[in-house]
Specification:
Number of strands: 14
Helix content: 10-25%
Number of helices: 5
CATH superfamily: Hypothetical protein, similar to alpha- acetolactate decarboxylase, domain 2
Structural class: alpha+beta
Strand order of the largest sheet: 6-5-4-3-8-1-14
CATH architecture: 2-Layer Sandwich
CATH class: Alpha Beta
Strand content: 35-45%
Shape: globular
């Protein structure tokens, strides 16, 4: 009898722990997520066929970035609206019937604004955001409302089959130079360990305040601005139903990604 009295409290504790596991799991699943369509190395290898309709993306978040089927321009998702920046640089609202081979979407909730240091370049701005984030092992989303002394953006032309690797296509990019421009940056950040899957570090797309021009950000000089930043502790990955077969995903494409992101 004494033996059972000793064991009973432990059994009750174990039962309580088991009951709490679903609640803990539910708490984790309620955390904000980065939802990603496709794999960055597949895009680098020339996998430009869209797999998810653009009309579904605003259900997944209110900010985001990516591209379109056949690499038809840069995607910017802002306030739940999907914008398309073609090689002309003239922004239009993307038709919901379009599809995407690669996109990242997150839900950025209103929160305190972070004043950004004036006069800094892209790398120093990113360093300030990383310092505010604290844990660079997390994913993150950011929205920056600012005036830029200078900003350089780009887009790429729509592709036709047979598709070439992205590093080759990026050599034909259209580059847009802005001076004293007001607008919005949408940024998503991946930790270093997402190499091959996503983009390590910050990845930025831009829209002017009138939503008429924009593109993938190559460089900038900040005049003044504020950022809203959200850490993301979950990653949800959506892979195409047709799979990723036929693409060379074994190659180390870090150099290609760096060249594509920087525009060099």
């Amino acid at each position: 009898m004494k033996k059972w009295r000793a064991v009973l409290p432990l059994a009750m504790l174990f039962a309580l722990l088991l009951q709490s596991l679903p609640a803990c799991a539910a708490g984790l699943l309620d955390k904000p997520a980065l939802v990603q369509v496709g794999v960055i190395d597949a895009l680098l290898a020339g996998g430009y066929d869209g797999s998810v309709s653009v009309g579904q993306l605003p259900r997944l978040g209110n900010v985001g970035l990516g591209t379109f089927d056949a690499l038809d321009g840069e995607m910017v998702i802002l306030d739940g609206v999907v914008f398309q920046v073609p090689a002309s640089g003239r922004v239009r609202r993307a038709e919901s019937r379009l599809t995407t081979p690669f996109a990242q979407v997150a839900r950025l909730r209103p929160g305190p604004a972070l004043d950004l240091p004036p006069g800094v370049g892209l790398k120093d701005m990113e360093a300030a955001l990383d310092a505010a984030l604290g844990d660079t092992g997390l994913f993150a989303a950011a929205r920056v409302e600012a005036t830029f002394a200078t900003l350089k953006a780009r887009s790429v032309p729509r592709q036709t089959r047979p598709y070439r690797p992205l590093a080759e296509v990026a050599k034909e990019q259209s580059v847009f130079e802005f001076a004293k421009v007001r607008g919005t940056l949408v940024g998503l950040r991946g930790p270093d360990y997402v190499r091959g899957l996503g983009v390590p570090g910050w990845h930025w797309h831009f829209l002017t305040a009138d939503r008429l021009r924009g593109g993938h950000v190559l460089d900038l000089t900040l005049e003044s601005g504020q950022a809203r930043l959200a850490p993301l502790r979950r990653l949800e990955l959506v892979l195409p139903e047709q799979g990723l077969g036929g693409l060379d995903l074994a190659r180390d494409r870090r150099g290609e990604l760096q060249a594509v992101e920087s525009g060099r």
